[in-house]
Amino acid sequence: MAQRVLVVDDDRTVSDVVCRYLEHAGYEVSHVGDGLAALEAVQDRPPHLVVLDLMLPGLDGLQVCRRLRERPDGVPIIMLTARGDEADRVLGLQLGADDYLGKPFSPRELVLRVGSVLRRAGEPAAPAAELLADAGLEVATGPRIARLHGRELALTLREFDLLAHLMRHPTRAFKRTELLERVWGWNFGDQSTVTVHVRRLREKIEDDPAEPRRIVTVWGVGYRYEPADA
């Protein structure tokens, strides 16, 4: 059965091209032109992924992203933004968007990004028996559950995979480009995506996100996970 993709964009020219490319790639595609219609479509028939434009009439893309992240199914989101909207792009990632593309973009690249996100959403991150634990932080990669001192954490798909990857390799420093390739499955992309996801993870697992002790910055390189007993 084909995976379902919902395209949310009020620019009919853009949406027609996007839908055509996605359909050609084998996806079942539906389209709506505003934020409220997007929420109704997701409620009526949840898609496997949402391609979400930032600028929408009525309820904008950021508000839609926030509402979708309140759902328990964690539908993946790829956000479309204008090139100059860096602040909104970062905010979209902070709200839980799994990826973004700046307009104008290549439809072929969008299809590749959709495939990458869906593969990550559909494949187990690790064997079911694997449990990563350190100082009250537990990550069970089979059921994809993370807890901090017994409290379950609300992590997005990418946040979970990033945390699990770093915890599997304690004290090892990873470049942002390495993390894009190993966690996102990309050999291209904006490295600020990694930076934003690290920032969000710190907000959820660090006692003081401004002075992180678990996910530390390695200046001039990237990031590493520092276990409590290191």
From TrEMBL:
<dbReference type="GO" id="GO:0032993">
    <property type="term" value="C:protein-DNA complex"/>
</dbReference>
<dbReference type="GO" id="GO:0000156">
    <property type="term" value="F:phosphorelay response regulator activity"/>
</dbReference>
<keyword id="KW-0804">Transcription</keyword>
<feature type="domain" description="OmpR/PhoB-type">
    <location>
        <begin position="129"/>
        <end position="227"/>
    </location>
</feature>
<dbReference type="GO" id="GO:0005829">
    <property type="term" value="C:cytosol"/>
</dbReference>
<dbReference type="InterPro" id="IPR001867">
    <property type="entry name" value="OmpR/PhoB-type_DNA-bd"/>
</dbReference>
<dbReference type="GO" id="GO:0000976">
    <property type="term" value="F:transcription cis-regulatory region binding"/>
</dbReference>
<keyword id="KW-0902">Two-component regulatory system</keyword>
<dbReference type="InterPro" id="IPR039420">
    <property type="entry name" value="WalR-like"/>
</dbReference>
<dbReference type="InterPro" id="IPR016032">
    <property type="entry name" value="Sig_transdc_resp-reg_C-effctor"/>
</dbReference>
<dbReference type="GO" id="GO:0006355">
    <property type="term" value="P:regulation of DNA-templated transcription"/>
</dbReference>
<keyword id="KW-0805">Transcription regulation</keyword>
<protein>
    <submittedName>
        <fullName>Two-component DNA-binding response regulator</fullName>
    </submittedName>
</protein>
<dbReference type="InterPro" id="IPR001789">
    <property type="entry name" value="Sig_transdc_resp-reg_receiver"/>
</dbReference>
<feature type="DNA-binding region" description="OmpR/PhoB-type">
    <location>
        <begin position="129"/>
        <end position="227"/>
    </location>
</feature>
<feature type="modified residue" description="4-aspartylphosphate">
    <location>
        <position position="53"/>
    </location>
</feature>
<keyword id="KW-0597">Phosphoprotein</keyword>
<dbReference type="InterPro" id="IPR011006">
    <property type="entry name" value="CheY-like_superfamily"/>
</dbReference>
<dbReference type="Pfam" id="PF00486">
    <property type="entry name" value="Trans_reg_C"/>
</dbReference>
<keyword id="KW-0238">DNA-binding</keyword>
<dbReference type="InterPro" id="IPR036388">
    <property type="entry name" value="WH-like_DNA-bd_sf"/>
</dbReference>
<dbReference type="Pfam" id="PF00072">
    <property type="entry name" value="Response_reg"/>
</dbReference>
<feature type="domain" description="Response regulatory">
    <location>
        <begin position="4"/>
        <end position="118"/>
    </location>
</feature>
